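Handout, section B. The chain below has 311 residues.
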Amino acid sequence: MKKLISLFLLSCFLFSCGQENQEKQMEEIIQQELALTQNYTHRPAFGAQVTKNGCKLIIEVEGSQDYRFTDDTGQSTMLPLNFLLFNAGKKNVIIKVYPRDGEDYLTKYANASVTIYRAADKDTSLKDYQQIAEFNLPQGLEEQKLPYYEAKLMIDVDVPFTYDQELATSINLKNVPNIEQKIVEKYNQIRTICINRDEIAYHREFLHSSGIVSNTTYENNYEEIKNSYKRKPMLTDSDSRITNREFLPIENYTIQYYANGKIVALWQKNLRPMLYMKAHVKNDEGEERNIEGGDPIFLYMPQGSNELKVW
């Protein structure tokens, strides 16, 4: 009996120490992200109201990366654009519309619209947003048997932050020997982190990316950043109700370069993220359903480094 009690107390002690250590590491990550942000008095916010049915849609800012709406279902949402804007100036917003899974061409059921707005400040009321550009997918495209449709919108942005200088000094990945092997190795490294549900390692990998989001959306004080980490990443969530987790292997991908070769990403053939998980989840009533989803991974190589990092 004494031995059992001793083992129980030891188990409790180790659990307490592990939890305390994880909290300490999370605090370090929060402080590191806070250091990647600045306070701005000029805080314009740009957003895109995206509505689509019967198609997939990608929004890319030229010189930056993209954001994807790749479910076959209809969607209507306001997408914050600031995190795709690396500096002030005129930008081409590239809109790409693709068929749904199982369709080779855009059909008569494809409908898509994108309206871009500017707000004078992040706290501006929605009713005071100013429309600055608009796209509507033309009708009658099914007769042209198009595998995709592309359009560009020119916008002029006045954001206070700059990331173009960091990109300018980073390495052109197209000139790196064995770059595809390096990309796949980095994706597999992050995939393993997700399989192991290593939330701390995951946050460390995405620290630069998280810093960009917090800084460009002006969510840049300690409490805001701390609160953002309360939302658990689905791919590393240790909730016991999530079972039968399976991650796609990093293969059968397409490679896409961005920002004149300074950023790269892998995508599935269906345009979804290559880091992708399928699983089962139980609700509070014990009912089980299928879930799936993935995280885009944009990589770059900083000046003076030979290792890829998450942008």
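Note. The first strand starts at residue 45 and ends at 53. Compare this with the example in section A.
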